[in-house]
Amino acid sequence: MKCFIRFCGPITASEARRRNGLAWFFVFQDTCPISFNVPVAVLPSPAQIFRNLNEPVIPQPVDAEGKRILHSLRLSRMLVPVLIGVAAVAYLFYRQFDPEAFRSIQWSATAFFWIGLAVLLLVLRHVFISFRLYTITRGYFSFRKCLQLIVLWEFSGALTPTSKGGPVVMLFVLTQEKLPAGRTAAAVFYAMICDSGFFVLTLPLLLLAYGPIMLYPGMDSYHDERLASGAFFMTYAVMLTYWLTLVFLLMIRPGYARIVLFWLASRPWLRRWSSKFQRLGQEFERAAGEIRMQDWRYHVKVVLSTLGSWTSKFILINALIIAIMPAIPLDGATQAFIYARLVAMFTIMTFSPTPGGAGLAEVALASFISDFVPQGLGLIVALLWRGMAFYGYLLLGAFIVPGWVAKQYRGRGRELQPNS
């Protein structure tokens, strides 16, 4: 049987604590003249809520994992994705380059207009992602700082396989920037939910609208045995499972994450990773608490900025295709179909084994748009796209990341000396 106690009139933070935390939200203000009913055994203690959500993260001496992350941001690691990308481009030039088709490109004012629009869309995408970070952190950083932090995020993603690296690095970066613990976890996990949710929820609608031809040129059946069909459905199944797990653990039953991860940490055969499991359980708990505290406006802003960032990323490629192939129809139906094809392509590339999808992305784009752009010209579209959206972030990161890493070294002295 639940017992309810009625409080009337002002109550101080110390009184709320003395009464076993029955009105935990009073810890955020000195007094509150509100009258309300509260179940005795449901609410957590004030100390727990305050500690988990609003206590600033004071960066401690960086452990081995932190040193590894900082070491992974060194500029010498740019060589790997660059070399893979160059090798892929060389392969495409050898197999597909057509001098006659290249000479047929009309480098007119119209072509440069569409290329300029693509650059503008790239900037707009960056603004959308930065605004999402600004919203999730509830204005803890200035918008300018968010723009810089997203460069760090994209740079780390370009140096690691697309299935790992970026979120882990960003969790570390935000912690070092002294963001409160709850907002740090929410910034990473909620972003992962939104990004995965975009594909999980959008793809079924697009498949219903366009059918199997959306997945790859010439595909007329979902039973097609070519790589695109099998890779698409396998990747989508993994992505759906991953997304549902995150939603369940963060939105529906956040307490289960801590229980399961702490149970895993106690298993003898997983003892090596016990501290990581425990830390992840704590991060899930903090993220869930932070997200549940927000009103509907917060969630609308996060969702809309996610939609804006992904839509800008895909339409950017549409603009480059139009720049190289001005004869392509500009009607909404054709461009929407190309957009859908690109969503399918990115789904298949989700778990790319190469850093930032280097090499795979160039080859994939030329193949996926081959029914709209001849192979010789598809190579040019791929080069323009990767030059802007991938190598552009590597270049920006080369200017921003060294200063940020050096700041971490200066702030913590010998504890962070690189292991090189």
Overview of this structure, please?
This protein is mostly helical and 420 residues long. It folds into two domains: 4-53, no CATH class; 65-416, no CATH class. The protein has helices spanning 13-18, 46-53, 64-72, 79-96, 99-103, 109-136, 143-159, 166-176, 181-210, 227-252, 254-265, 274-292, 296-324, 332-348, 360-368, 375-389, 391-412, and strands spanning 4-7, 36-39. The protein has a two-stranded antiparallel ribbon with strand order 1-2. Helix 10 packs across helix 11. The protein is globular. The termini are far apart.
Strand count: 2
The CA-CA distance between the termini, in Å, is 62 Å
Overall shape: globular
What percent of residues adopt helix (DSSP H or I)?
A: 55-70%
Q: Rounded to an integer, what's the Rg over CA atoms?
A: 25 Å
Sequence of secondary-structure elements = EHEHHHHHHHHHHHHHHHH
Poorly predicted parts: 1-62, 413-420
The number of helical segments is: 17
**Average residue-wise pLDDT:** 77
The major sheet is characterized as: 2 strands, antiparallel
Question: How big a fraction of the residues is strand?
Answer: under 5%
Oligomer: single chain
SS-based class: mainly alpha
Please tell me the total number of domains.
2
Strands of the widest sheet, in order across it, are 1-2
List keywords for this structure.
mainly alpha, 420 residues, disordered C terminus, 2 domains, globular
Short note summarizing the structure:
The chain has helices at residues 13-18, 46-53, 64-72, 79-96, 99-103, 109-136, 143-159, 166-176, 181-210, 227-252, 254-265, 274-292, 296-324, 332-348, 360-368, 375-389, 391-412, and strands spanning 4-7, 36-39. The chain is mainly α and 420 residues long. The protein has a two-stranded antiparallel ribbon with strand order 1-2.
